[in-house]
């Protein structure tokens, strides 16, 4: 097992920007008199802004112009919240994992449903760490389709079977596995179907990840 590349999701993996997404949608829904709770927050992990709105509305009818206005408003709230972010908000264990991967000549990338990846990474002082940042503008079919992961791996010239995806969403892990990537799920039970499952990245190391993948290859 020769690990060539690691592809990181953004929200909930690189930093807890998933909480900023939650706060932004909640503010919008509260203003519109519509419900939004923790369960809704889980439903929108790893998917585009438009798909997030569709899942949140649960069939509540709005026209396209209203939907577009709501998404733009939500994004303004998110960008406002984003100004609170600093390098201290990097996910626990992330910096060490990135440093070890760079020292091992492993290529690094981001594949995210967020169109705000670059400003997030700038706030975290990470924008120059990654060889490519893939977002919904990179492919026709964004997550939960596997196309974005495949596009990013192609950009890196990395073999799918030698690439690890780190995700915190059920859709992201499912998409990665469907395409043949190795997957590491971070967070609660929604990522139990990942090849490796952790609560946080500071529970592991690059050597530990490699050894676990080698063991999985031996079993398969």
What does this structure look like?
- The chain is α/β, with parallel strands linked by helices.
- The chain has two domains: 5-16 and 90-219, Rossmann fold; 17-82, Orthogonal Bundle (DNA polymerase, domain 1).
- The protein is 45% helix and 11% strand.
- The chain contains nine helices and six strands.
- A six-stranded parallel sheet has the order 3-2-1-4-5-6, sandwiched between helices.
- Helix 1 crosses helix 4.
- The longest helix is centred in the N-terminal third of the chain and has 19 residues, at 64-82.
- It starts with a strand and ends with a helix.
- The model has no long low-confidence stretch (mean pLDDT 92).
Overall number of domains: 2
Overall CATH class of the largest domain? Alpha Beta
How much helicity do the residues have? 40-55%
CATH architecture classification name of the largest domain: 3-Layer(aba) Sandwich
Residues in β-strands, percent: 5-15%
Give the overall shape: globular
Continuous helix count: 9
CATH homologous group name of the largest domain: HAD superfamily/HAD-like
